[in-house]
Amino acid sequence: MSMGLSAGRLTVLRAAAMFDGVSPALMARPAVVVADGTIAAVYGPAGPLPADAHVVDLPGLTLMPGMVDTHLHLCFDASNDPVGHLAETGDDPLRVQMADAAQRALRAGMTTVRDLGDRGYLALDLRDQRRAGMAGPLPTIVAAGPPITTPGGHCHFLGGAASGERGLRAAVRARAERGVDVIKVMASGGNMTPGSLAHEPQFSAGALRAIVDEAHHHGLPVVAHAHSARSIADAVAAGVDGIEHATFMTAEGVEARPRPAWSRRRSPAGWPGWAPPGGGCTSAAR
């Protein structure tokens, strides 16, 4: 795993074991060489170590790759009323709260987080501050900006409402110009917005196809919030790159066995060697 050890200050982490995410077996007594914040080499107990490195011993601990949270909203707190609290919070204090939330995620082992809906592109601001070295320790942030939704639809209060093919394409272009990493669309209603019904679609299949077409034209993946069974089918047919939640809700409840035609196009999330460029699946139910 050597990448060259000459650049900058070197740190060696020595632990009882290491899980590398590739082999099912733990490596005993590893030595991980870090150069300027990047893993430069991994050795076993007999491996050569740079003479001038700072050695950090972690007895009894197991090292592992950083975890990835593929669906969170840094702008929401964990209270009983995150929407109400968000409405009461201005952008400046919200930036501070979002940075605190990102730091908590990092301390919990999340080295990458994917923010799938913020207000005013604040997650992008945080992402860019991290890249410029202007923020404290933060995880890598993959950001969608305000999710595209219908007027008055799920999470409309985040500022992403759009309608009509021209309006939807314009919404995608606006996000591309702002530099988002992924397009998020609320294909169905949700559970956090008064008047929104999670089992009902918000966009037609044609509208979803327009969003996907425009996003892919700009080289951006699309993930769809979809609780509704109909919305899941429409999103898959439209060619989205990921389905969020996928609870298969109908007016009568949850459909226990999705129709085979809806599941023929499977996401390769989790296949060895495959890393989604902002796509993927999660199971939280918002």
List the SSEs and their pairings.
Blueprint: E1 10-18, E2 27-28, E3 31-35, E4 38-43, E5 54-63, E6 67-72, H1 82-87, H2 91-107, E7 110-115, H3 122-131, E8 140-143, H4 164-178, E9 183-186, H5 205-217, E10 222-228, H6 229-238, E11 242-250, E12 253-254
Parallel strand pairs: 1-5, 6-7, 7-8, 9-10, 10-11
Antiparallel strand pairs: 1-2, 1-3, 3-4, 11-12
Helix pairs in contact: 4-5, 5-6
Q: Could you explain the architecture of this structure?
A:
Residues 1-7 and 261-285 have low confidence and may be disordered. This protein has helices at 82-87, 91-107, 122-131, 164-178, 205-217, 229-238, and strands spanning 10-18, 27-28, 31-35, 38-43, 54-63, 67-72, 110-115, 140-143, 183-186, 222-228, 242-250, 253-254. The protein has 286 residues and is α/β, with parallel strands linked by helices. Strands 1, 2, 3, 4 and 5 form a 5-stranded mixed β-sheet that branches. The chain contains 6 helices and 12 strands. Helix 5 (205-217) links the parallel strand 9 and strand 10. Helices cover 25% and strands 24% of the residues.
Summarize this entry quickly.
By secondary structure, this protein is of the alpha/beta class. Helices cover 25% and strands 24% of the residues.
Keywords:
single chain; 286 residues; alpha/beta; Urease, subunit C, domain 1; Translation Initiation Factor IF3; TIM Barrel; 3 domains; 5-stranded mixed β-sheet; 4-stranded mixed β-sheet; 6 helices; 12 strands; disordered C terminus
